[in-house]
Amino acid sequence: MSFFGKNIKKIRSIKGLSQQAFAELFELKRGTLGAYEEGRSEPKIETLIKIANYFSIAIDDLLTNELTVNQLLKFKGDLTTYAENVKREQFALIPCITESTSNDYALLYNQESFIKELPTMQLPVNLTKDFRGYTVSNLEMSSHDKGFYPKDIVVGEKVPSTVMKKLNNGTLVFVVVDGKLIFRRLYITKDKVVLRADHKNIEDASYPLSDLKEMWRVRYVFCRRIPEFGDDVEDKLFLIEQQLQKMKERLG
Question: pTM of the prediction?
């Protein structure tokens, strides 16, 4: 008695394949596969070899033994996951400050128990560095339909206090200062910090450098919309092209 039918049915079950999907793998009709599984028909030698090779199962085992699930999972090739041998990539688990936790964060930023309660995001970033996510909640960093909008997320790398003065002017940061969490561009003159918004109606915020409790330099940005990739030069060229076209129309 051949165990072929029972074995391929068990293989289908482990792989999550329907009869139709399994049949198509080996150029069979669904009815033919059903006949194999029900023991009403035996496969041609060519079909047997294809299935045995595909799943790296010995033909003798496929025909003469009722294979167990454990046995099938130990076979090499497409059938097994070999999970114990797979080196899985580690993603960094990054706490994320949301609109509802922003005020609390400004007060409890240095309390580990509070940080652990924040929602998290996972990203393939350097595991040896400290990152923090921040959800934008206003239009302070927007200008002329560009920039950051509510629900956009920025991810910052922690800046040690000894390095803060070395950052380039205009660097995007979010900082804890004066009991607030502020997302702006950083400008430093001597021991004074100016936090400047991109929106023209928002005044600069100025603080002594020593007042900054935490600083995160923005490294990654996730927008809820497709961003504009054109630069100012491209925009100006487009406007010039439009003006030239209008002049041609008038002269024509």
Answer: 0.57
